[in-house]
Amino acid sequence: MAADPTPQALHEAAALFGLLAAPARLHIIWVLAQGECDVSSLAERVGGALPAVSQHLAKLKLAGLVRSRREGRHVVYLIDDEDVVMTVRRLLGRSAEPATAEQSRGLGA
Predict the structure, then answer these.
(1) Handedness of CA 22, 27, 33, 38 (dihedral sign)
(2) 10 to each of 1, 6, 59, 68, how far by Cα in Å?
């Protein structure tokens, strides 16, 4: 039997899930998982206003999930935590399945 996580680990995991609870941030992670992108392209792709996407990126960067680099006049963002990408892909893939677990067990409508 595995040991229970420490209170610190639980707190950090809850903070990360809280950060990813915003659909726009999940979409940003999804897009960046496919390749680096500048903020204008990200805003267009996720359908958000440039200032809002910039704020989301700042939070993701502060949490260490994304990083940026300068490319000429543009700032390009890329994933800095592949484990989060795997988690997001798994969760989004699961939510995209045609039938939920309840439906496949006969509990859905």
Answers:
(1) negative
(2) 18, 6, 20, 28
The residue with tokens 């992670």 is: 29
Tokens 């209170």, residue? 7
pLDDT tens digits along 38-90: 999 999 999 999 999 999 999 999 999 999 999 999 999 999 998 988 988 88
Burial of 80 (0-12, 13-18, 19+ CB in 10 A): middle
Q: Can you give the pLDDT at residue 91?
A: 84
Beta-carbon contacts of 9 under 8 Å, excluding residues fewer than 6 positions away, are none
- C-alpha 31, offset from chain centre: 9
CA distances 50 to 28, 65, 91, 104, Å, are 12, 19, 26, 41
